[in-house]
Recover the amino acids of this structure.
């Protein structure tokens, strides 16, 4: 791009596919990212320029080089969830027809779990990962652990209804906090 050669989406895409193929062949990256490179390469070959490789690679670059606090709302939420999962928490995305808090508290009574309604995730986060409206979670287990994970990643939240063994927690958009 700096030389004025890769200005068209097709040219950029072709360069990135070749670069990924060379990186894979020459084993430029650690084995831990080999599957990611393979996935990107396969996606680029299957979907062509519509795969959006440039955007994906830019996202990966920023997510690995910028502090978590400077990442998008969705990235920080995902980071918090991954942290909770590493501590043995269950994370579940629940269909609207199954979203009955009393039933879910009973179902997850013996484990620590963070549950969210699928439609709220889809509706309240845009393509850039910014949150536009509150997202309600069911916390089954020690609420303080979830609050600490959210606080560490500068996620704003408000506690709601308390239940035996947990509570409802609303993740708030930055503008509402």
């Amino acid at each position: 791009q700096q030389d004025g050669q890769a200005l068209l989406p097709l040219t950029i895409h072709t360069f990135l596919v070749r670069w990924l193929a060379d990186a894979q062949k020459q084993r430029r990256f650690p084995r831990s990212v080999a599957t990611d490179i393979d996935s990107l390469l396969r996606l680029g070959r299957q979907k062509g320029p519509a795969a959006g490789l440039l955007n994906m690679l830019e996202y990966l670059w920023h997510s690995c080089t910028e502090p978590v606090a400077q990442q998008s709302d969705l990235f920080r939420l995902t980071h918090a969830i991954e942290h909770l999962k590493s501590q043995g928490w269950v994370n579940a995305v629940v269909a609207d027809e199954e979203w009955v808090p009393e039933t879910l508290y009973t179902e997850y009574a013996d484990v620590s779990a963070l549950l969210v309604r699928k439609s709220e995730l889809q509706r309240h986060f845009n393509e850039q990962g910014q949150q536009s409206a509150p997202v309600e979670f069911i916390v089954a287990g020690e609420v303080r652990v979830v609050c600490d994970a959210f606080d560490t990643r500068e996620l704003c939240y408000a506690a709601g209804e308390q239940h035996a063994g947990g509570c409802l927690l609303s993740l708030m958009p930055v503008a509402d906090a």
